[in-house]
Amino acid sequence: VHGDPEKIRKRIRFIQWWFFGRERADDLFAAAFTADGDPAGHVGYTRTELSGGGSPIAAAVLSSAMTDPKLRGSGVFSLLMRHLMESAAAADIDLLVGSPNSRSGRVFLGRLGFTGIFHSIRAGRPVRWEWLGQRFGAPGRLVAGAAGHLCDAVIPLRVRGYHYHAGAELPDGFQRFIQEAVQPAACHVVRTPEYCRWRFSHPDREYRHIALRDPGDRLAGWAAVYLGSHGNRSRIHIGDYWVTGEDARAFRALMAAVREVALQEGADEMYWAGRTCSPTYNLRRLGFISRKSDNPVIAFSPTGRDLTALDRWEFRDTDVDMF
Predict the structure, then answer these.
(1) Structure letter (DSSP) for residue 170
(2) What is the 3-state secondary structure (H, E, C) of 253-292?
(3) Could you read off the pLDDT of 100-126 as tens digits, one per residue?
């Protein structure tokens, strides 16, 4: 399907990690085969726990749906998805969620009974501005750099009153911090230590954990980031983040710490994908430029559960691993 050998290797690594990289026996990976025994397609889900309105939601994240291009339109994908949906119902899974591309999204929404619950937001803020004027040569880089300095002066990001540390491991005191930080959220993924250790062990991403601490050395904010790329520019992807007490000042300081890490890594911009209902986490106020994703996050309840709890999901990139 991919053709490129490196893309094939990365895809296999992802599937091995996503479906078989943790000690759970209730994830599902299903494949269909032709009469000759050749693979025709595969789909799967991984179990996760949500908290919605204070109640637990047994959920599963859809991933890695793929059909042999020669067999597209033959019903293989729908066959596999119906098998998966029936299996989810038998396992008492309340909710299936995913973020499909445009082609498969039409099947999910039109034929399989899924509902589009919201569009995620993609947001970015340059940390080095000159690349914005790259195509116009030296004059363009000069103008873009000057505009960037003005933006940084008007909407500054400073780690004032806090200090931070960036490392490869979750910070000390993380479990207590995350329980306090997610409490105001109406709907969120339950982040147990086991879940987080698995979640941030992605085989092709070197996550760094940024721990923001107040003057008393109390953990006040946390972000998980990794260095990636888009076209000819490098990005610090902000995969997950929280602050305690929905403290807007702490969130600004946390994003300032992310910016400093981005500069240390030589990145051109900070990038985030997700969705928030909290004014605390409004990135536009911090100079991020945002746009709505083309395709919605979708959901289906095999048990007939009401989906309204998802309307206020504090949704992060890592919840579904979209990008």
Answers:
(1) P
(2) HHHHHHHHHHHHCCCCEEEEEEECCCHHHCHHHHCCEEEE
(3) 888 778 888 888 899 999 999 999 999
CA distance 217 to 213: 5
Q: Is a pLDDT exceeding 90 seen at residue 206?
A: yes
Residue 223 CA to residue 251 CA, distance in Å, equals 10
pTM over 0.85: yes
Tens of pLDDT, residues 68-110: 888 888 888 888 889 999 999 999 999 999 988 887 788 888 8
The strand pair at 95-98 and 55-67 is best described as parallel
In whole angstroms, give the CA distance from residue 119 to residue 218: 35
Question: Quick count: other Cβ atoms within 10 Å of Cβ 181?
Answer: 25
Q: What does the alpha-carbon distance between residue 290 and residue 272 come to, in Å, rounded to a whole number?
A: 9
